[in-house]
Specification:
single chain; alpha/beta; Rossmann fold; six-stranded parallel β-sheet; 10 strands; about 45% helix; elongated
Amino acid sequence: MQISEQQLGAIIKRVLDELQRDSISTAKQTLYVVAASDFDERYLTFLNSFPCRSKFELCAVIPREWMSSERAARIQSCIPKGRVLTDSAEEMGHANPDWIVFPVVPRDIVIKSALGIADSFETKWIRLGLEHGSRIIFSKDGLEKFTGKEPKAYVAQILEYYRKVLEYEIQIKDVVEIEKILDRTGKAEQPVGILEREITNVRNQSEQFCEMMLPIPEKKRSEAGNFSSQEIRSRKIITNTNISEYIFQNEIQMFPGDIMTDMAKDRAEKMEIRIQYMK
């Protein structure tokens, strides 16, 4: 994957902003941990195991209807020194998070975020974070995986939504990676090191989540459309982003189970790359 001038410019701006934050203030940064509307025990698990507590002003963000329930008490017990917030207009109006983490990420959140729709509890906080320049992280462990029965066109479209979210500089990381990122916050780092890290993130994240989102069924492909794990590992996913890797080839062979988005097909035609569908 090549880095465009626009992406490089965004990376350099992020590096400069990060260096400026490190040099201006040593105060605790605010970190909002946003729950999904449907309660999920993984949210509590994340709060209980949250790393680097002493480095952040920690806020758990939950739907308003939870405040009068036992859930709010359980959440507060996970962060005795933190705050519990809701999506009320007053609290959102005063919110200015440095970081926003989503331990549980239903697929609808990804779709709406990619389309710029902020009509739900979760997506309102995503919009707020984007408008405030917050660092937003989706937990890879909390993503909703495919079942393996979905039509290929549907899978391809959802993967495009994930790519769009990554273009918004929303990171998708597993719990271990999140711990490393948060532990690094506030530590001095050389500009070159930050630049290399950010470029690597842009190159790698877009490809990693594709494999991560694919299901791993126990049985081989059935008439219902399931895939064996071996088939899933070997399948190609070609999008508008990575089709440039095939620029020196005259054709692309697509086998059953492979996925190519419509945008990739259009670009392949412009690049005069023939698409051959194998049986």
